[in-house]
Amino acid sequence: MNPTSEIQDLARKVEEQLSARRVVLTMGGEPTYIPHQPRGAEWNLEAMGPEKLNYAHKMASNLLEDECPGAVALQVFGKWYPGEPLPRWNVVLLDNPGDVLWPNRDTLLLSKRDGRNHSRDATRLAKKVAEKLGLSDFLMPARNPSAPKRNTCGWVLPLDFVEEEWTSEKWPWSKENPIPLFAGDSQIGLRLPLGDLPEDALRRALTVECIDGAIHLFIPPLEWAGFRKLISFFSETVEENNLTDIILCGYGPSGAPETVRTFGLAADPGVLEINLPACTDWVSYRHNLLAADTAARKAGLTTTRLQLNGGVNGTGGGSHLAFGGTSIETNPFLERPNRIASILRYWQHHPVLSYAFSGQYVGPGCQAPRFDEGPTHSLYETEVACEGMESIRGSFDPFWIDQFLHNLMTDASGNTHRAELCFDKFYNPTAPNGCIGIIEFRAFETLPDTDLMATVSLLIRTIIARLVKRPFGRRLRRMGKQLHDYFFLPSWLWEDLQEVCEDLTKAGFPFDPEWLRPVFEFRFPERGKMEVSGGDLILRQALESYPLMAEESQGLSTVRKVDNSTDRLEILLPDHSVLEKGYLLVNGIEMPFTKHSAGMVCGLRYKCASAHPALHPNVPIQSPLLFEWVDQKTGKVATAARYHHWHPTQPVYDGFPTSEEEAEQRRKDRWIPAPEREGLIARGRPPRTSPEFKVTVDLRRQQF
User: Fold this and answer.
1) Is the same domain home to 585 and 494?
2) What's this model's pTM, rounded to 2 decimal places?
3) I want to staple 331 with a disulfide (CB 3.0 to 4.6 A). Which of 252, 437, 471, 488 is the partner?
4) Where is the composition biased (Basic and acidic residues) (predicted)?
5) 351 lies in the same domain as 214
6) Is 278 part of any domain?
7) Which residues pair with 440 in a beta bridge?
8) Which residue from 39, 206, 210, 29 is spatially nearest to 132, judged by alpha carbons?
C-alpha cells in the first residue's frame, strides 16, 4: 500500500529541509516477529532455539527470492551474554546491487535439506577450496576432544588476505596429528585452541565440516575485498561439484562499501529480531521495512501476540529506531552536539513519545525508561549535561558526548542499553561497535500494521528535522508524579500528540495526528461501553508501571522480577453534562472525574491478578470490577456492568486463542451487563486519595 499523498509530501519536505542544511541523517530499525502460535521457551524468555533459526532461514530465503536476488546469506555470531553457552546467532544478508555475490540461492540451506549426508562432500570441498587458493599444504584435519586421534570431524585452513594475496602458515598440528578442539557443539571455527599457537602466529582460519548432514563453511574475519573473493571461490566450487545444503557461517566482512545493504535476522529473547539496513531517507526505510515484513509473513511469522484473555499485543519485542550519520566525520549529532540536547529536552517535554508507541508495560522497570524516571538526581544532572553540550564551540573530543550521557541514560540498575534514548553505540571506545554514531530510540514496539510502523518512524524523523531547523532549548519539565498519573492515560497522550503535531506544523512540517489514530486504537483498546444518562461511558485500556522487586538469587545468576499484579484503565465520559445527572461507582467507590478536552476522565488502578513476588499481599484480587451508574436524584443504580480481567466463569482458559476471532470473543465475554443491579439503592463511599494520584484512583487503597 502506498502512503497517502499528504504523507509523501511531508516526507519530501523533511528530506528537503535536511538537505538544505547539508545534513545526511541515516535511519534504521529493528521490528520483531513471532509465529502465529508461539510455543516453547524460545518464543517466551529464551533467545535461541531451533525453531527460531529455521524461521530465520526461511525468511532469508524469501528475501533472497523477492527483494535481493544475488545477495549472500551468512550465519554469523553476535552478542554473547553471561549465562548463555554460545554467542547468539545472526542470519545476515549482504546485498550489493549490481554485484551478484551468490548466484544460486538453491545451494544454500535456507528452507529444506536435500536429505543427503554431506560428510564426504565437506572433505572434498575443503580440499578443492584449499587447492584453488594455492594453500593445500596448510590444510589440517580437526578432531573432537573425546574422539580417537585419527577421527576427523572437519578441516582447518589458517587464512588471511594480505596485499591482494591469500596467505597461510603452518600450525603445530598435521594430518597425522589433528587439531584437538575444545568441547562443544558449535562450529569448529569457534572451538580452535588458538591459545596453544605461538604468540606471533596467524590466529584466523577457514573451517569446513558437516553438521547434521549440512556443510558448514566458517569464514574468518576478513576485509571486504578478501571476503568477496573468498565467497566467489566458494560459489564456483560448490557449483562445479554440484553440492547443496551449504551454510556459510563465521564472521561477516568489515569495510563493506556504502552500497551494500545488510538485513540481519537475530536471535532475541522471545522474538526474531530484524535489523534493517541503514538508509539516508524515509522512503528507502519504508521500502526495507515492507520488504522485511513481506518475507516474514511469507515464512509464517506475525507482529502480534494473542494473550490468554483475548488481549492483542505486539510481539513483546522492540521495534527500536536508530538515527546517525554515514560516518563519524559527517555525523549530524557530532557536528552540532546541541542537536542531542534538543532531542533530550524535546522527548522529556512530550511523554507521548515515550509511552504511546512502546509496550503495554512502561515506567522505571521497563526496557526503555525515560531518564526522568530514574534516580532523583537524573533530571537535574541531565539538564546540566544539556547545557554542557549546548556550550560546545569549535572542535572537541567526541568522547565528551559519552562522558556527558553514559551515567545518565540508563535504567534504574545502571544498564546503559536499557534506556529510552540509548547512546551505548554513539561514541563509547570501550565497547565493541561503540563508536558508530548511532542514537537508538528504544521506546517503540512492533505494531500489527507495517505501514503504521513506517508512519511512526516518519514522525520521529520529522521531529529530528524540526530540531535541526530550530533547536529546542526549553527548560526540562518538573512533572514529578504527574508524569504517570496523567500520561499513563490515553486521553492525555493523545492531547500531547496533538501538541507535538501542532509544533511540527508551525515549523513547516504538517503532520496530521489522525494518521496515528489506529496506533492509539491498538494500544488503548476499548474494554467496555455503556449508556449513562443519555451519554456514553467508555472504558479503555491504559498503561501500567510494574514495580521492580528485590534481587533474587537463581543459581549462579541474580535476577530482579517485577510485580505485574496490577492493571490500569481509563474511564471517559465524552459528554460533560452527564455528571449533572448521575455518578459512577466502581466496586462501591465513587469515581472523581477530571475535566479534559476529550470529556471527563478518570484513571483506575486495581489488583487484577495474584503474583509472586508482589507488593501488598493483604489486598485480594479486585476483578471483576463492578461499574454502577447511579441516578443523582433517586440514588438508585440506573445501569451496571462487570469487567473481568480474566475468564468470567472459569479459573483457566482452554489454551491460547487460535485466531483473531476467538481472541475478540474472549475480550467481549469479559464485559458483562449486570441488569440485576438496576433499581437497587447504591451505597458508595468517596475514594482515599494521595498526592501521587490526582486523576487516578488506586482501588488497592480502598479496601480498608
Assistant:
1) no
2) 0.94
3) 437
4) 664-680
5) no
6) no
7) 322, 422
8) 206
